Every structure is written in C-alpha cells, then in structure tokens.
Amino acid sequence: MRNLKITLAYDGRDFHGWQAQPERSTVQGTLAGAIERVTGCRVLPQGSGRTDAGVHALAQVASCRLDAGIPTENLQRALNHALPPAIRVLSVEEAAPEFHARKSARAKTYRYRIFRGEVCPPFLARYVYHYPYPLNEDAMRAAADIVVGEHDFTSFAAVDPEHGRDEEAASNRRTICSSEWTRQEQELTYTVRGNGFLHHMVRNLVGTFLLVGKGTLNREGMKSILEARERSAAGPTAPACGLYLASVEY
C-alpha cells in the first residue's frame, strides 16, 4: 500500500464544500470518483481540513492509501484528465506511512479578497467579495494583530453541525501566528496564518474587521469581542466567494 500526498487547487463556487455528501457535488467526492476511475481503488481521500461551500483552494492537501503501481507523475496527469476543470491536481507525491493530510498539518494560511472598486469585473466577481463602500482600511490594519497569539476563538466560530456545543467549546483554542490586511490596487486582502481554524472562523473574523472599517467598532471593541467567547458578540459571516485556503504546512 502506498501512502500518497495529493496537492490540489479548486474553484469552490460550484461545489457544496470539501466533505463528501450524499447526492451533492463536493470536492472530496469528486476526487474520490476520479481516483476510482483511474486506479480501480475505492478510497476517500482525507483533506487537511473542510472548506465550506463556495470557498476556493490554492493548495489544499489530501492523503490516501492506494494499492496501485501507477507512477506519481502519470497519476497526476490521469487524475487531471478525469477531473472537471474546476479541480486541478498540482502534484502527487509518495509520503511516509504515518503521513495524514489533517493530523500531520502544522499550520495553514487563508486569504480573503475584497474588491474595492466601484465596478467589479464580471470575470472576477465569483472570486472576490465586492465591497465598494467607504471603509477605514487603516483602522482595519491597526486592529488585525489583536487576534495574534493563542486565544479562545468561540466568538468567531459557527457551531459545527457535526459536533455538540459542549465539545466544540472545549476545543476552540487556536494559535494565530500572523494576521494582516494589505491593499494592492483595487483589492483589499486579509491574510491569516495559524495552527488551525474553526468552522467559519476566517469569514467571521473578516465580517467583524469590516465593522471596524465601517466605524461601528473600534480596536478595544474588537478585543472585547474576542474575550467575550460568544458568537453573537461578533460581526456577520463574510461571503464564501472571497475566501481561499492558500497553503498547508507540515
């Protein structure tokens, strides 16, 4: 049995997220189907994490064990031939027997893109959140570091339907290594790197930082929300279309 590490990119707009679901098109389910067609092996590749419906990935990582002798380069080509254009396998590598895409991950980086121009180009619209209204971007940049460090991020976590509230609350501590807003031409981008992220956490952070930009929340208020450990204290969930899983570190 070979243990394989598969790195892939995908346009999440037309999928109901990563995790396989009955009678719904998902990235995990589509990849599993392609692997079976190419190798004859029925496996469920395990991802580094579950991206939500509409969320994109620049470098998602999956792992699976295969009893097939196809060389990795040939397997990459064959999978891309079998997959829809919205999913591309960037690489297939032999991994150590103990490697697991989720359990072995040490850090992840997410990126959220906001288009600030008055008119969003139609070819860009499905990949950014279009927000042309006034924002104090300097205030958002100044507040970004509040979430850096180890914290309980309950205020920014949606309740995961697969876990009970008590179980979820007990595991909501995460460490954020970096958090920053940057501006390039008409795009405002939030980049955050951490050892793990909760359900909807990045999108809830973005929605709350937008309140800072609108002037309805200041830096101290952002800190109070973090300390409150209550989802209702934070801002709304930003749309999925602007979010990307940028990289996974091992």
Keywords for this entry:
250 residues, 10 strands, Alpha-Beta Plaits, 2 domains, single chain, 24% helix, globular, alpha+beta
Explain this structure to me?
With 250 residues, the protein is α+β, with helices and mostly antiparallel strands. It has two domains: 2-94, Pseudouridine synthase I, catalytic domain, N-terminal subdomain (Alpha-Beta Plaits, 2-Layer Sandwich); 107-249, Alpha-Beta Plaits, CATH 3.30.70.660. It has helices at 27-39, 72-82, 137-143, 165-170, 201-214, 219-228; strands at residues 2-10, 46-47, 56-66, 87-94, 107-115, 129-130, 149-152, 173-184, 187-194, 243-249. Strands 1, 2, 3, 4, 5, 6, 7, 8, 9 and 10 form a ten-stranded mixed sheet that branches. A hairpin with an 8-residue loop joins strand 2 (46-47) and strand 3. The longest helix has 14 residues, at 201-214. The relative contact order is 0.18.
Please report the distance between the alpha carbons of the first and last residues: 22 Å
Number of helices: 6
Which strand-content bin applies to the residues? Answer: 25-35%
Estimated structural class: alpha+beta
What is the second-level CATH architecture of the largest domain?
A: 2-Layer Sandwich
Q: How many structural domains? A: 2
The CATH superfamily of the largest domain is Pseudouridine synthase I, catalytic domain, C-terminal subdomain
> What is the N-to-C order of secondary-structure elements (H for helix, E for strand)?
EHEEHEEEHEHEEHHE
Largest beta sheet, briefly? 10 strands, mixed
What would CATH call the class of the largest domain? Alpha Beta
Oligomer: single chain
Mean pLDDT: 94
Instruction: Examine the coordinates and then state which fold CATH places here, giving the name of the CATH topology of the largest domain.
Output: Alpha-Beta Plaits
> Which residues form runs of ≥5 with pLDDT under 50?
164-169
Instruction: Evaluate the radius of gyration.
Output: 19 Å
Helix content: 10-25%
Shape: globular
Number of strands: 10
